[in-house]
Amino acid sequence: MEEILTRILNNLVGRVSGPMSFRILLQPLMATILAVRDGRKDAREGKAAYAWALFTNPEHRRVMLRDGWKSVGRVYALALVLDAVYQGIALRWFYPLEAVVVATVLALLPYLLVRGPINRVFGGRTRKGRPP
């Protein structure tokens, strides 16, 4: 088990300087752009912060996950494909778990971390002009 974890860690670190390293910046940037767009939309509609509402509002969790996945799903799929290509070039093998970890870190994590705070930033401005 220790050998597997060491291999995974070494392979993950190698992605930063290896071929196709542009995606390390490009994919989080795309996820962030989508999160800003969706966070502003949430603020206009008076919705709660996305990640917080996912964990605290179980009645609407399924709808919210579908909405979020609709936005970031293509970026996630692209992250999986690009990581598979990277693995083929650099590692000459495909490790599906590594691809899922990389896609999650590059696409889902930035989306979840940015959408809620953007909602808060723009929500404060939007709510001031609304009637009570």
Quickly describe the structure.
With 132 residues, the protein is an all-alpha fold.
Q: Could you characterize the architecture of this molecule?
A:
By secondary structure, this protein is mainly α. The chain has one domain. It has 5 helices and no strands. Helix 2 runs antiparallel to helix 4 and helix 2 packs parallel to helix 5. The chain is elongated, with a radius of gyration of 18 Å. The C terminus is likely disordered.
Strand elements, count = 0
Query: End-to-end distance, in Å?
Result: 58 Å
List the total number of helices: 5
The percentage helix is over 70%
Compute the average pLDDT.
88
| Secondary structural class | mainly alpha
- Characterize the biggest β-sheet: none
Output the helix-strand order: HHHHH
**How many domain units?**
1
Radius of gyration: 18 Å
The fraction of residues assigned to DSSP E strands is under 5%
> What shape does the CA trace take?
elongated
Uncertain runs are: 125-132
Descriptive keywords:
0% strand; mainly alpha; 132 residues; 83% helix
SSE layout and pairings?
Blueprint (H helix, E strand, L loop, with lengths): L1 H16 L5 H22 L5 H7 L4 H31 L4 H33 L4
Helix pairs in contact: 2-4, 2-5, 4-5
